Structures are given as structure tokens and as C-alpha cells.
Amino acid sequence: MFKSSFVIASAAKQSRATCANGPGLPRRYASRNDGIRAAALALVLFAAPALADQPQTVTIDNFSFKPNIITVKPGTHVVFKNQDDLPHSVVIPDMQVKSPLMDTDGSYDADFEKPGEYKYFCGIHPMMTGKIIVAE
Hints:
Blueprint: H1 2-17, H2 27-52, E1 56-61, E2 64-66, E3 69-72, E4 76-82, E5 91-92, E6 97-98, E7 107-112, E8 116-121, E9 129-134
Parallel strand pairs: 1-4, 3-9
Antiparallel strand pairs: 1-2, 4-7, 5-6, 8-9
């Protein structure tokens, strides 16, 4: 009985001594922490860039742009989608952009490459305004 207790205590001591997280911590904690670190690293490396590249949508409805102010990163693709019953257009003076008329369910795409503030309005209904802020 004494001999088996000694073998178990010796094995536990060896397990703690060779733990990846340092002496004194059982091996099971090292593997749990390693898994958490790996998951966090995967999230940073793979999910964050994918989120940054997602196109943004500005909806036109009830004579307004929704949302009428958005902040995006340089290189973001923005889709203006008309869900109103009447035609609309998008004019972005700082980019020298004037979209064609968009009927219901029509859309217009624009890429915002340079940092800055880009005010826009509807070419038919100039009281409809919005702004896109491009920042790092």
C-alpha cells in the first residue's frame, strides 16, 4: 500500500514539473490555456480581416438614407440600395460621383479608398443627405 502511494505522488510531481505553463501547475491547465490561446489567435488572424472587408449597405427608404452617417475603413465597398417607391440617385461631390437613377430595388456601388468625410445627397431630392466617414 505504501509503495503505490509513492508511485502516484511521484507521477503527480513529475507532471507538474514538466508542465508547459511552468512548474507547479498540473498539465490539464496547460492544455486548456493552450486551447484558449489558439482560439484567440485564430480569431485575430482570420475573423478580423474578414469583418473589415465586408461591404456596407445604405438603404434609401421614405425619402432618407439609412443610416445617414456611417464610418468605414479605407477600401470599403458601399452599396446604396433603393427600397423606396420612387426613383433616387446618389451624388458624392468630393468623389465626382453621380449615380444613374435607381428604381425600386435598384442599387449603386461605390468604393471609398481615401480617408476623409464624404457628404452625399439624392440628385432628385437634395434634402436627402448623408455622410460617409472613412478612417483607419
